[in-house]
Amino acid sequence: MKNIKVLGSGCTKCTKTAELIEKLATELGVEAMVQKETDVQVIMAYGVMRTPAVVIDEELVHSGSIPTQADVTGWLQP
Amino acid sequence: MFEIFTRLADWLVYHLAGLSADTRMGQALHFFVEDTVKIFVLLVVMIYLIALLRASLNVERVRDFLAGKHRGAGYLMGAGFGAVTPFCSCSSIPVFLGFTSAGIPVGITMAFLLTSPLINEVAVLLLLSLLGWKFTAVYILVGMAVGIAGGFFLDAIKAERWLQSFAAKALERGKQSGPVSSASASTLSMAERHQFARDETLEIFGRVWKWVIIGVGLGAALHGFVPDGWIEANLGDGQWWTVPAAVALGIPLYSNATGVIPVMESLITNGLPIGTTLAFCMSTVAASFPEFILLKQVMQWRLLAILFAMLLFAFTLIGWIFNFLFPVL
C-alpha cells in the first residue's frame, strides 16, 4: 500500500495530478492512497517551491509540473 | 518586418469579409485581426527560443544563488531573477517560504516576487512589437526599480516582524544554518532543452492566448468606438489627479501583463499620457486581491496593508514622474 501525497495550493494542475495518479493506480491494480496536501507549512517542510509536487511514502519524487504518464507508472510499479 | 500582418489583416477584413476601411467596425476588426495574429506568431517563436536559453534556470537555483548574498547586490539580483525566472503565480507562496527558509531577507524575496509578474518574456515581447523598444526599455527599468526599491523599503522597516510566526521562525533557522546548496547544477543536452522549450511553449501559450484575445479585443473596442480625440481632449494634459485615479481603477481590476499591454497600446495611441498609462497598467498587473489573500497565509494583516500602500504610492509616483518628464523629452 503506497501512501501518496500531492502537494499544491489547490490549483487545477494539482487536481489533475491527483486524478492522474488515482487513475493509473486503479489501472495498474496498485493499492494507493492519494491525498491532496494544501497546507503551506507542510509543503514548506518538504522543501518544495514549485507545485504540484508528489511525495510517495514520505519521499519527494517530483516537483513543478503535472507528471507524465510514464513517470507515474514508474513510481507505482515496484 | 511586421507589415505582413497588416497585409494579412487587410486581405481578411477588407477583402474577404468585405468591410470598409472607413467604418468604425472595419477599423476595429482590422486592428483586432492584425494584432492577435502578430502576437500569436511572435509568442510561439519567441517563447520557444527564450525557453531554449533558460532551460536550466529554476527557482531552486535562484534560491541557492541568492542565499548568503550581500544585501545591496541582493535586491538588484532578486529583481533581475524575478524578471527572467519562470514560475506559475500559484507557486508564489511556496517560493516565498522556500526563499525565506533559506535565510534570504524578506526584502530580497519580495524584490523577486514583485518584479516577476511585471516583467517576463511575454510582456517584453508584446511591448516590443506594439510600442517599440524605447517604451520597452522604460517599462523594464521601471519594473525593476519597483522591485528593488520595494524590497529595500521592506527590509528598512524590518518587515520580517510581521510575518506569520511559522515563517518568521523558518527565516531565523535559515539565517543560522547559512546557505545551503541542494540543487545540482546539471548540464542539459540539446534534446532536453528542445523538450523543455516545446513543453514551455505549449504551456505558456495555452495559458495566455485567451488573455491576448481579451486584451486586444478591449484595445480594438477602444480604438474603434471611443470617439477620436475624446481621451486626448479630456485626459491628455496629464492632470495630477488622473494618476491616482488610474491606480485606484487598476488595482481592483485583475489582469496579467499579456492582457493589459494591448490595452496600453490603444490608450497611448488615443492620447492618454504615458505616466497615466503606466500607472494604470502596472497596478492592474502587480496588485491583485487574489494574490493578497494568498499572501495572508505567510504575512500578518499589517504587513499586507503596508505592501498594498507601498504599491499604491509607487505606481502613483511613477505616473507623475513620467507625465512630468515625457512632455519635456
- Per CATH, which architecture of chain A? 3-Layer(aba) Sandwich
- Structural class, judged by helices and strands of chain A? alpha+beta
Low-pLDDT stretches of chain B are: none
Gyration radius of chain A (Cα, Å) is 11 Å
Report the average pLDDT across residues of chain A: 86
**What's the number of extended β-strand segments of chain A?**
4
The shape of chain B, in one word, is globular
Largest interface: A-B, 15 and 22 residues
Order of strands across the main sheet of chain A: 2-1-3-4
- Average pLDDT level of chain B: 83
How many domain regions of chain A?
1
Strand content of chain A: 25-35%
Q: What's the tally of helices of chain A?
A: 3
Give helix and strand order of chain B, one letter per element, not per position: HHHHHHHHHHHHHHH
Distance between the termini of chain B: 28 Å
InterPro entries (chain A): Thioredoxin-like_fold, Thioredoxin-like_sf, THIRX-like_proc
Domain Thioredoxin-like fold (chain A): 3-77
Protein name (chain A): Small redox-active disulfide protein 2
Keywords (chain A): Disulfide bond, Redox-active center
